[in-house]
Recover the amino acids of this structure.
């Protein structure tokens, strides 16, 4: 924006490194300065990560968390997109169903936990259900929004070529709405990752979320707590990055303006 | 009908499109708004007919009704004797802008209506129409890589690929700059003369109408009625400085009610 | 107009009630059970108290996040290099669920209000930071050129061009983040305090399987979340903030 000169390529590695180094330094020195016995220093966290890797616990937990996300989020995509397309297409249906959705949407997935436990018992299924619930709404909302912003011209053109309603939705409406749908999918994935951690803290006993809580409860191992937090952050970042790559595929890229 | 010296017989006599006593009334905020009143028009096969009129007079409405996107409140539209009941791939409408599918390549767009054909024939047709509209080299390009004029050419190619009886064009060059517009007119005429389709072309540009059409239908302002139908009997290529051309152009300007001295 | 959606909801409620009847001894309440649960809470004066407790925490956490993240985000969005420096860090912190911060929060703040507010703060800070940065990016370049053309000083530029250009997007981001804050407060309260709607849900279940209160709590949470969202939306509609929609 106000850069006097355009930043060079090396700078995109330089500055983040400086910032990260700064953060680590502040962290390290505040641990030393306050003489805390409990909060880990960066070094402690690093050994903590190594320890987890050694015990093979880390991979198992990561795998569990990812698996739950895959199932819950996957189900939300498979159910949410058709539902969203239908609601976007049929104004009448949308009018009837939308208020119900608007009421259910602000209820935190965490608040659903007791209900989920009643239906599914404590364990995987409850967690997957919560992830599904949390991912479902952003996807449906994005689908509805995407469908309604399809230019009428494209609908007319599709009808002109003799497409039936189903063909119209599949060959014109869905591709035209896809960029927006993908944004919703990306947001839903981010939410799914947040919820899986939360669900694991409360309703199951494996996974990264569980690791965070358990490390504290059984031995105040804050080095492991922070190590697990770091893992959560990094994997979340990787997931987000992967989905953004999908947005760059040519047949969807037209829907995204080039933003920095 | 107007200042034409002789009536020109258009190739392929016999009525292709018949519009009879067409009326269109919209309801807006509880009030009935009449857009079209008693439109009568016969278009022959292979004819190039332009519809002109002041902005907002209803020309696009007329085109949409004739193409089957709207149902008229009165009157009828028949093509080859058959009543028009909805959009149909035998009559393709080319839109002013944003009509191409942005998620498909040039080939994908042109092949859009050809899904029922066997692969070899589909590819052959696509290649042919890529040539016709002169988009060679851009087969794998996406619309976001194309200029406005190229996108319109793509729309025309997509329309022609399904072999329609009639081509409707709704101010197709309206969103283009004036130089591109002139070039596109030449392109469209060239394609028309090779493919010999029936064309119904809506425009607000007088010069465009006189340069391209066999006949020009002049609509009044809302509610639109046919004010006049001019026959442009100049053979192509038309010299836009010839006295006869200027005569017809002046006549048209007068019909629309515009002064020709600014 | 509004009859159909209301009918739809009524049908859902009826189906729910019937499903409960069919399975007596079922733990979950039907809509009638929920309604009586809500009345129960109101009679004991708990409803108002819990709602206020939750809102209190949200206000503090969200407010603090807004006051810190927005100016910081605007600045980072403005200074390209600042953004380059901190963007990767933000991207790593953002996916960490506020709940994962609980052990750290308890360590730093003990069990209680402060920990809950901290969790809400963490949950709101990063989204708001990103919103502010993105809002600065989306200012059309022409605004800058026009500002320079008219010879505005830096401070005049910020108040007369930057701020108005940024407000509509910020409002949308604030609304979405308020929704996040409301989700987080419920989670935070389940774990570390002893009042509030989140606490209600956990407590009602643990101390006697009062599922009617659990679901009553859910319903109230949903309703208040919806009201907060509507309130923010109406703020967006206020005329002096409304200019951006004319762009389209």
């Amino acid at each position: 924006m106000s850069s006097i000169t355009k930043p060079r390529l090396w700078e995109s590695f330089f500055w983040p490194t400086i910032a990260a180094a700064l953060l680590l330094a502040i962290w390290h020195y505040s641990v030393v300065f306050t003489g805390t016995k409990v909060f880990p220093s960066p070094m402690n966290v690093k050994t903590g990560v190594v320890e987890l890797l050694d015990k093979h616990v880390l991979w198992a937990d990561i795998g569990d968390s990812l698996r739950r996300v895959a199932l819950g989020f996957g189900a939300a995509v498979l159910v949410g997109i058709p539902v969203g397309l239908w609601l976007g297409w049929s104004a009448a249906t949308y009018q009837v169903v939308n208020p119900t959705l608007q009421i259910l949407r602000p209820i935190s997935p965490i608040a659903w936990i007791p209900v989920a436990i009643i239906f599914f018992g404590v364990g995987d299924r409850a967690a997957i259900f919560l992830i599904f619930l949390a991912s479902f709404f952003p996807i449906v909302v994005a689908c509805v929004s995407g469908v309604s912003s399809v230019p009428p011209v494209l609908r007319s053109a599709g009808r002109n070529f003799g497409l039936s309603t189903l063909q119209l939705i599949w060959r014109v409406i869905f591709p035209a709405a896809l960029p927006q749908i993908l944004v919703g999918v990306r947001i839903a994935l981010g939410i799914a990752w947040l919820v899986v951690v939360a669900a694991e803290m409360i309703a199951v006993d494996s996974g990264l979320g569980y690791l965070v809580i358990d490390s504290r409860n059984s031995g105040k191992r804050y080095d492991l707590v922070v190590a697990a937090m770091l893992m959560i952050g990094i994997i979340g970042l990787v997931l987000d990055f992967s989905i953004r790559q999908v947005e760059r595929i040519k047949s969807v890229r037209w829907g995204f303006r080039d933003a920095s | 009908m107007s200042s034409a010296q002789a009536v020109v017989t258009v190739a392929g006599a016999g009525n292709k499109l018949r519009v009879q006593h067409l009326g269109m009334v919209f309801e807006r905020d509880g009030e009935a708004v009449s857009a079209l009143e008693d439109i009568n028009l016969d278009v022959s096969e292979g004819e190039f007919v332009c519809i002109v009129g002041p902005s907002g007079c209803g020309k696009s409405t007329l085109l949409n009704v004739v193409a089957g996107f709207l149902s008229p409140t009165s009157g009828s539209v028949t093509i080859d004797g058959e009543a028009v009941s909805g959009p149909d791939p035998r009559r393709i409408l080319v839109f002013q802008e944003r009509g191409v599918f942005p998620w498909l390549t040039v080939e994908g767009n042109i092949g859009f209506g050809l899904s029922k054909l066997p692969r070899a024939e589909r590819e052959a047709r696509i290649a042919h129409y890529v040539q016709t509209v002169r988009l060679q080299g851009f087969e794998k390009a996406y619309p976001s890589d194309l200029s406005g004029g190229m996108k319109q050419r793509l729309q025309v190619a997509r329309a022609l690929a399904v072999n329609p009886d009639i081509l409707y064009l709704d101010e197709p060059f309206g969103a283009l700059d004036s130089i591109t517009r002139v070039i596109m007119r030449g392109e469209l005429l060239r394609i028309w003369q090779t493919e010999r389709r029936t064309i119904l072309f809506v425009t607000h540009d007088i010069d465009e109408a006189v340069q391209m059409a066999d006949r020009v239908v002049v609509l009044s302002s809302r509610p639109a009625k046919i004010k006049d139908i001019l026959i442009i009997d100049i053979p192509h290529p038309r010299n836009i400085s010839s006295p006869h051309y200027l005569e017809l152009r002046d006549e048209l300007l007068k019909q629309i009610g515009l002064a020709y001295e600014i | 107009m509004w009859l159909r959606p209301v009918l739809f909801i009524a049908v859902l409620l009826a189906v729910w009630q019937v499903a409960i009847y069919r399975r007596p001894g079922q733990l979950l309440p039907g809509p009638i059970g929920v309604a009586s649960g809500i009345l129960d809470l109101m009679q004991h004066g708990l409803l108002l108290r819990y709602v206020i407790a939750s809102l209190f925490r949200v206000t503090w956490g969200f407010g603090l996040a807004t006051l810190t993240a927005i100016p910081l985000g605007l600045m980072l969005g403005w200074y390209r290099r600042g953004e380059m420096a901190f963007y990767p860090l933000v991207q790593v912190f953002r996916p960490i669920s506020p709940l994962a911060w609980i052990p750290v929060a308890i360590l730093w703040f003990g069990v209680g209000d402060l920990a809950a507010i901290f969790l809400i703060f963490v949950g709101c800070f990063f989204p708001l930071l990103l919103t502010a940065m993105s809002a600065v990016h989306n200012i059309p370049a022409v605004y800058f050129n026009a500002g320079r053309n008219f010879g505005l000083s830096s401070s005049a530029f910020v108040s007369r061009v930057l701020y108005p250009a940024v407000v509509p997007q910020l409002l949308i981001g604030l609304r979405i983040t308020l929704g996040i804050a409301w989700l987080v407060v419920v989670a935070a309260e389940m774990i570390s305090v002893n009042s509030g709607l989140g606490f209600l849900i956990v407590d009602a279940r643990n101390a006697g399987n009062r599922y009617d209160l659990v679901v009553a709590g859910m319903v109230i949470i949903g309703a208040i979340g919806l009201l907060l969202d509507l309130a923010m939306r109406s703020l967006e509609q206020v005329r002096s903030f409304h200019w951006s929609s004319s762009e389209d």
Q: What stands out?
A: Chain C has a mean pLDDT of 84.
